[in-house]
Structures are given as structure tokens and as C-alpha cells.
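Appendix C reproduces, verbatim, an entry submitted by the partner laboratory led by Prof. M.T., so that reviewers can inspect both the input and the predicted structure.
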Amino acid sequence: MRNILILFMTVLIASCSAQKMTTSNPQIYWVNSLRVSCTGASPMKCLQVQKNETIKKGKWQNFYSSIEGFNFEPGNIYKLSVTEEKINPALVPADGSSVKYTLVEVLEKKPDPKFRIHDIWVLEAINATTVEKPNENDRMNLPILEVNLTEMSIMGSDGCNNFNGAIKNIEGDELTFGPISATMKMCFNMDIPDKFNKAINKVSKFKTENLKLYLFDNAGAELLRFKKVD
């Protein structure tokens, strides 16, 4: 009987040990204001995080797991207190994380200024020169730019052809686009579309001010200026 009891206790202790997790002290996590495309076991959308006391430019890393208890809202930067629990490898699913992340507290939540460009904009100037609205008899319109940060994409019209593309990077005042594709229609006057397309492919920086969006090249020269669509 005694041997059976010892055997039972041994199995019980081993079972408890197999399920035991090692929990860290709360860690500081910064969470960026938007999800990005990433690939884990399959294509997905990832949070971007930093584990620093302060945010460091260019140090965001894709986060392939989830934080239990955390409700993410795009457009906000978060400072979180998070615990990390290491899970016994025998209990981790094939495509799961070996660490469980749990929210302790939201320490800070603030709107990200770059989300001001998440809107629809109509062209006002090219190379710092005001663009006049086409004649009423001309079927062309002023170029339009729609910025969608949640999808990291842009779309719109150069005044003649429709276009779409990806936002390659946006951080601080930096903004770069990936390849931009467009329809190939020819209009009577291609002056504005040609200048617009040449300029938008040089964009490196941006700013917003008084409901206007300014796009600059790497040297700081104004390429395109838009006003917010009412």
C-alpha cells in the first residue's frame, strides 16, 4: 500500500511539474499604432512592439503572438506592463508560442500623430507651384490621394489614371511608398499627371499642418501639397 501511495505522489508531482509555468516580473512593452503584414505559420497581421523604457526610432519588431487581456485600437501608441510566462514545451501547440503574454496594466495610451494623414486629400501644388483646377470642359480632375494606414496602402487618381500602391515605411516624419501601379489611359493634356507621378515616386518625408499634407523629397524640397477633402 505504501509503495502504491509513493507511486501515486510521484506521478502527481511529475504531472504538476509538466504544467508549471515560469512567470517573469512585469515587462515594459511599447505597441505601435498599426498592425503590419507578416508571415508566421501563414500570412497574418502582426503588432509591432519594443521592450524599452522609451521608444527608439527604427527598433519596432513584429510580434507574432497575442497579449491576453489587451484590446488593440489602431491609431494609438500604447505603453503596457506585461508578464511573460514560459510554457512547458510539451504543452505548446505546433504553431503556438512557447511564451504566454498577459496584460498587467495599460500605462499609457496616446494618439499617433502620423494617423492625421489617414484620409483623402486633393492636390493643391506640385513642386511648390499651385495647380489650377482643369477647365470645366476638360474631363480631367485634380489628382486625389487616399492614404490608408491600417492597410499600409495608397490609392487615388493622378487626374487621368487611377493608381494604387503600398506604404513601404512611415515613422516619425519619414514616408516612403513601394511600387505604384496605374491604369494606362491617355488624356488630352498629360502635363499634370506626368508631373504628379514623377513627384510621388520621390517622396521621402511628410508633414501635416492646418488640414494640409506636405510631401517632400529626401533633401526637404516640397514635392506635393494637398488639402483635406471636406
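Confidence is low (pLDDT under 50) at residues 5-20. Additional entries are available on request from the coordinating office.
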